[in-house]
Design brief:
Elements (H helix, E strand, L loop, with lengths): L9 H10 L2 H6 L2 E3 L6 E3 L7 E3 L12 H5 L15 E5 L5 E5 L2 E2 L21 E3 L5 H12 L1 H12 L2 H17 L10 H16 L3 H5 L15 H17 L2 H12 L4 H8 L3 H19 L6 H8 L1
Antiparallel strand pairs: 1-2, 3-7, 4-5, 5-6
Protein name: RNA polymerase sigma-70 factor, ECF subfamily
Keywords: Signal
Organism: Rubellimicrobium mesophilum DSM 19309
C-alpha cells in the first residue's frame, strides 16, 4: 500500500501497511468495489474469478479456456501468505489462489469494477474476499488522509504539529477499526477522532482561542501577492479570535466542503445548532475582515 501523503509520517505508513493483509503488499491483489459488492482484483483493479471445475485446489482451465480466462500468474520469487497461496500450472508457472481456489481474469471485462464474467456457464464466479469489510474500511481511511492533514493544519497552523495530530488520529482509527460498525461515513468517524484528540491536547476554550502561529503558510506569489499575504494573515488572526466551537464548525464546512448533515455528525450536535454556529462565525469574520470563510477565496485563505 503506497501512501504518498505520509512521506513525513513513516510510523503511520507502517501502521496502515501492517493493518492490511500482508499478502496484499506481496501479491498485488486488492479489494475493489463492484455492482456485486466487494471483489478481489489484480493490481490494475480488474475483477478476479474462481472456477467451479477446479478441484482440490488444482487449476483445470487450460488452452482456449485459459485464453478467455487468463490465470493470475505470480511473479518469480513470490511466496504464499495467509489465505493467498500458489499452485503450479502444467507449464511450470505459478498461479495465485485465494482460500485454496485458483484465481483468473476474464477477457471481456474492460474496466475496473466490471463483473461480466460472473455466472458465465454457471461455473464462473467473482472472487469474494472474506475480509472485504475490513479492507474497505482501510481503503477509506487512506483516502481521507489528505483531508485530515488539511483540516489539522487549519486547526493548529503548524505542519509538524498537524502531522502529529493526524498520526495520532489514524493510529487510533486503525487500532479501533473493528469498533466502526458502519453507522455513518468513515470520514465523519475519522474527523470525530481527530477533533477529540485536538481537544484533548488543547484543554479549555481559551487554549483553543489563542493558539500561536509558529509555521507560516506558503506565501502567495504573482501579482497582488502583497494583498494576498495581508488578507491571509488577517483571516488567520480573525479565526484565532473565534470561539472554538464556531471555528471548528466553520472549518469543516468552508474548508472541507462538508454538508451541514456531515459536519453535524462529526461534531455530534443537531444540524440547527451547527447552522447557527456557522452563521455566527461568518458574521464575525465579516466584521473582523470583510471576508466570508465560505467563499472560494476564503477557503484558500483558511487552507493556508
Amino acid at each position: 500500500m503506497t501512501i504518498p501523503h505520509l512521506a513525513r509520517l513513516p510510523a503511520l505508513a507502517a501502521t496502515l501497511v501492517l493493518a492490511g493483509s500482508a499478502a496484499w503488499a506481496d501479491t498485488g491483489i486488492k479489494t475493489g468495489d463492484s455492482s456485486l459488492g466487494p471483489v478481489l482484483t489484480d493490481g490494475n483493479g480488474m475483477t478476479l474469478y474462481v472456477f467451479d471445475r477446479d478441484e482440490d485446489g488444482l487449476p483445470a482451465c487450460y488452452d482456449q479456456c485459459a485464453a478467455n480466462w487468463p490465470p493470475l500468474v505470480a511473479a518469480e520469487g513470490a511466496a504464499a501468505e495467509g489465505e493467498y497461496g500458489l499452485v503450479q500450472r502444467t507449464d511450470g508457472t505459478m498461479q495465485w489462489t485465494y482460500d485454496g481456489k485458483p484465481l483468473y481474469l476474464w477477457i471481456n471485462d474492460k474496466a475496473p469494477g466490471d463483473v461480466t464474467g460472473d455466472g458465465v456457464n454457471g461455473v464462473w464466479h467473482v472472487a469474494n474476499p472474506t475480509d472485504a469489510d475490513e479492507m474497505t474500511v482501510l481503503d477509506e481511511i487512506e483516502a481521507c488522509i489528505p483531508a485530515l492533514r488539511r483540516y489539522a493544519h487549519a486547526l493548529v497552523r503548524n505542519r509538524d504539529a498537524a502531522d502529529d495530530l493526524v498520526q495520532d488520529c489514524l493510529e487510533r482509527a486503525v487500532a479501533g477499526r473493528a469498533r466502526w460498525r458502519g453507522d455513518g461515513p468513515v470520514r465523519a468517524w475519522l474527523f470525530r477522532i481527530l477533533l477529540n484528540r485536538f481537544r484533548d491536547g488543547h484543554r479549555g476554550a481559551d487554549a483553543l482561542r489563542h493558539l500561536v502561529v509558529v509555521d507560516r503558510p506558503r506565501e502567495p506569489s504573482g501579482s497582488g501577492g502583497q494583498d494576498e499575504r495581508l488578507a491571509l494573515r488577517e483571516v488567520e488572526e480573525a479565526l484565532k479570535r473565534l470561539p472554538s466551537d464556531q471555528r471548528t464548525a466553520l472549518l469543516l464546512v468552508a474548508l472541507e466542503g462538508m454538508t451541514i448533515e456531515e459536519a453535524a455528525q462529526v461534531l455530534g450536535i443537531p444540524e440547527g445548532t451547527l447552522a447557527s454556529r456557522i452563521a455566527r462565525a461568518r458574521v464575525a469574520l465579516r466584521e473582523l475582515t470583510g471576508r466570508d470563510g465560505g467563499t472560494p477565496r476564503g477557503r484558500r485563505e483558511l487552507a493556508g
